[in-house]
Amino acid sequence: MATTMTYESILCVKPEVNVYRIPPRASNRAIRAADWKLDAPDWSGRMRVTARGKVAYVKLEDKISGELFAQAPVEEYPGITVETVSDSSRYFVLRIQDDSGG
After folding, report:
1. What is the DSSP letter of 34?
2. What is the helix, strand, coil percentage profile of the chain, to 5?
3. Model-level pTM?
4. Is there a contact between 93 and 85 (Cβ–Cβ < 8 Å)?
5. What percent of the chain has pLDDT over 90?
6. Of 24, 30, 55, 87, which is the most exposed, with the fewest CB atoms less than 10 Å away?
């Protein structure tokens, strides 16, 4: 039986990123980075963007240990997983779901 191995390629590494927990949207109003507490990130670490097949993965990792904090598969952009913000080209919204069932 033959197995197909799909390799993962590293597309981009940002050594220092900040993550902010933002509340769910109450309306269809555009998301604005100015509404976040930019001086108080909820998490800081490294971001790696990788690709496996036709799917890209945004991975947030501890910058020292490399331990995975969260990841999000991106099948299309813009889309449900990655959204732009209306007031900045520097910030974006990454939808992360907890798949642990807890």
Report:
1. G
2. 5, 45, 50
3. 0.82
4. yes
5. 60
6. 24
The per-residue pLDDT for range 4-49, each reduced to its tens digit, is 678 999 999 999 999 999 877 777 888 899 988 999 999 999 999 9
- Domain span at residue 43 reads 8-20+35-94
What CATH number should be reported for the domain holding residue 66? 2.30.29.30
Encode 32-70: b = buried (16+ Cβ within 10 Å), e = exposed.
Answer: ebeebeeeeeeeebbbbebbeeeebbbbbbeeeeeeeee
The rounded radius of gyration (Å) of the Cα atoms in the chain is 15
Hey, is 33 helix, strand or coil?
Answer: helix
Cα gap 92→47, rounded to integer Å: 13
Residue type, position 57, single letter: Y
Nearest to 18 by CA among 96, 90, 95, 100: 90
> What total of structural domains would you count in the chain?
1
Task: Examine residue 27 and state whether it is found in any structural domain, yes or no.
Answer: no
